[in-house]
Specification:
Two copies of one chain form a homodimer. Chain A is an alpha/beta fold. The first copy, chain A, contains ten helices and 26 strands.
Chain lengths: 414, 414
Amino acid sequence: MAVVKALSKAPCDVTLVDRRNHHLFQPLLYEVATAALSPGQIAVALRHVFRDQENASIVLGEVTGVDLEQRRVLVGDENLPFDHLVLATGSTHHYFGNDGWEPHAPGLKSIEDALEIRSRFLVTFERADRTASAQERARLMTVVIVGGGPTGVELAGTMSEVARRVLQGEFRQLDTSSLRIVLVEGAQRLLPVLPPGLGSRTQRDLEELDVEVLLDTRVTDIDANGVGLDSGARIEAANVVWAAGVCGAPVEQGLTDFARKDRRLEVQPDLSLAGHPDVFAIGDLAHVESGGKQVPGLAPAALQMGRYVGRMLARELKGRPRADRSPFVYRDKGTLATIGRGRAVAHIGRAEFGGVVAWLLWAFVHIWFLVGFRSRIMVLLDWAFAYATFDRGARLITGDPFSGEVPGGRSDRA
Amino acid sequence: MAVVKALSKAPCDVTLVDRRNHHLFQPLLYEVATAALSPGQIAVALRHVFRDQENASIVLGEVTGVDLEQRRVLVGDENLPFDHLVLATGSTHHYFGNDGWEPHAPGLKSIEDALEIRSRFLVTFERADRTASAQERARLMTVVIVGGGPTGVELAGTMSEVARRVLQGEFRQLDTSSLRIVLVEGAQRLLPVLPPGLGSRTQRDLEELDVEVLLDTRVTDIDANGVGLDSGARIEAANVVWAAGVCGAPVEQGLTDFARKDRRLEVQPDLSLAGHPDVFAIGDLAHVESGGKQVPGLAPAALQMGRYVGRMLARELKGRPRADRSPFVYRDKGTLATIGRGRAVAHIGRAEFGGVVAWLLWAFVHIWFLVGFRSRIMVLLDWAFAYATFDRGARLITGDPFSGEVPGGRSDRA
């Protein structure tokens, strides 16, 4: 989207191909997974965003391959020719070679993922309320979150609040606040991308929310009933959420020469593929170094890459020589992670801080970046309501909660 | 819900069993199907509604049978005993014996139905934009709505507005306003439950929105590519929506003695089943006569029946003899049907009117009845935005639009 926007006045036709008709604001996806927001509130139709940009066309379709020699993109059974190509297919879950874990531990990348997690999470309270077995109740009332990065921290903190505040008192037998939430992180601290002080601050905040934090711990097994750890311990848990590894999600055909082990594409300093100065990879898909460090897989970095390529192409289409390209430089404007109601941590320049101020900053920044005025206002109001009342408006279990093995298997839902 | 609320101060325990964890405000379901509202905006969690009612418990489960002699309800593998039982399982689509039509012509009863229709409707524009065949484009750009009652009228009018206003200008090739919408009704006029003048007024309003209205016409065949009519004509259409027949949706076992041909349950004047004065059927499930006329399957009638049974039981639990029961009397407070932006018809007492006044009344009444303050405010704002900007916020095609045969088959979506 950033590339398309940057090309709005360039003398060219721009075609945006996406297998979804909408843009998803991923940083707030955990809010859908925990029933605070509806999918429609964190997504906008691509056609709507670009309706007034005359040189932009949208194609709803899945790109299955790229022919770099013939300069064509394969979309279904169509071939789209290109002069310049920008690849921005992002990243996907990576189970470290244990693909059998996926059905038991959904990740959080798409709306379907979020609704899957929401449905499983809400259904287990219902089941725990009805079971006569104390052992089964304990299993149902345990959530393991694998991965202590921003997504894992956000999910752990928010799920704790849902159990301790939102659902509190809604069951006649079950004490929902007895929900056990275990956050498992392989590194020595939470939020490894942030300074160590903020990691321990985050851990303290989570522990105040009754989240158990296991550091320096790796998951060795995930099945339908729980999780095995490298300490030899096993946790019986009805809900396991994968917030650990991601890898690049390149198109299927034509780019293997550029793919690294983590499936990200190796790019030149100008984000182009080696030997193909008109083909670029940006965002989570690209492995980029800037200032000697790897650019993190975060939304601001992806936005900066998109703007960089879009503006460069716009200049070149107006006649600037390709030789003038300067390398992409990532500007770290700061990193924010939220933990729960009024709790967050921030690292901006040399400043490190937490608490309500960080949370307000986080809320402001995220609402601001939500695409489109309408979403901004509605999300703001939804949050204001949720904050004031501890209510969550999107608590729907749809699809058939009794078909299949929820939790444990997939079924239709909405 | 009305029964449970009416029993809030009665000396009894009330158990509400539902296979969904939420209450759905069905009169606005067409707004979800046409991408104006998100599912979360027309639904509330049952537990949330009754969190403060101490004598009420919620059980998420599907009732598969009733044992009237043993006074037990079968929920999954559990038996719930009862002293009094109120059945309110509603109605479902009825394809007049042609169940093979269902996959090609989804109805509109659940959130899944609405999301199915939304997804099919939005995807066909994308396909029409990409096809090279004029014949295929014509098929894709045709919608047939079977049934000219309130749901059919609302869908026809709103789909026309989406095509002519919301999507207008968002496709570079396709003229979305060329969408052909055909509304097929078997009777001599639209909205047969309303006075004839309002039916013709509605028809005029729809025709101004370029909807083709076929009266006195019956569908004889529905397949993946279109619809056959009893006139011998055939309409090639990618989207067919079923808004015609409904029938009762009783539980599977134990009530066959009371089921009519239309699967509604025959009830006594006090809404109890014959010979079982402690077992009631209410809402769309019940076949009730009041003042010599059949009570219509509308939300206000269901609400009145619920309140009637709940209050009667509350009185009897406090000692009033059963012999004092007076028969249920339906009070028709008026009927409203909306057609589109600023267009509706109203029949209240002896007054019949249409236009903006009817539409404002319709909007006011529907927002008012939306359960819970939060939903009310949010829906109001969403509508205000939609009215001011012709934008629709819930335009998500989720699930995989390329898997299976959408339109024509089912796939996961959200």
